[in-house]
């Protein structure tokens, strides 16, 4: 394999994809991606194509000739997948199968970091035991099930075909640039709107009693890079902070960071059905084998997310 890395990021225009591209560009590596329409993304080369079309994959691989592949593209909405399961299966399993097929035929010597989800574990049979990579997969939504199926397909590609596939299982992560469809940036958008006097001091929320292990997206993409550099093909690695906190405590901290006095109102349409939270994630594997540990405190993540909304210039 050539010593010059040609990094292909599927999902480069997404939340984590943009942060990953910036991190790789900071390392002065070559970065390629694909989008449905032309766009500029720093120093990355973004090709035009629709990854849901099978014929795009051979064309993409022929143009890029990737040596290192980060597969972040896919369907990202766990709650919404209950209403549109076919989209979840298409975006997560089918896209992964297209990728693995193109990799096997065109770049079998490349390394792949396949990005899944901690939601594949569902509600463990032993809920008070830290979840490690050997915990049974018990997905509870179409999103999680499609991720679990793609996870197994990625493992099989290593086992049966010898592809250098490393599987990442990130838990919840947030930070600057995340869509307000997700809780933390949604809180941030509302708080900034209240700061600007654009709406009354009322914050609308979903379930605040659930617990989440929440990481900074900038830490998570550094974990992806570390797995590319040092991960063992065929293996899966949890990525998380190791600390679980209630959504109520996260919201309280964000409100404290703004200094605002607000009324918090729960909305039934913001509650996600059939959603469980894992209280503790076992991170010994990625810590000991890879040497990765988070750098950002959650307070810094929340503060930076608020500031990103203030700096955006948009009316939240």
Number of strands: 13
Choose one word for the global shape: globular
Which structural class best describes the helix and strand composition?
Answer: alpha/beta
CATH architecture of the largest domain: 3-Layer(aba) Sandwich
Largest sheet: 7 strands, parallel
Overall number of structural domains:
2
What is the string of SSEs from the N terminus onward?
EHEEHEHEHEEHEEEHEEHEHH
Can you put this structure into words, describing what you see?
- β4, α3 and β5 (111-115) form a beta-alpha-beta unit.
- Helix content is 39%, strand content 17%.
- α1 crosses α6.
- It contains 9 helices and 13 strands.
- It is an alpha/beta fold and 316 residues long.
- The mean pLDDT is 93.
- It folds into 2 domains: 6-174 and 214-242 and 285-290, NAD(P)-binding Rossmann-like Domain (Rossmann fold, 3-Layer(aba) Sandwich); 183-211 and 244-279 and 297-311, UDP-galactose 4-epimerase, domain 1.
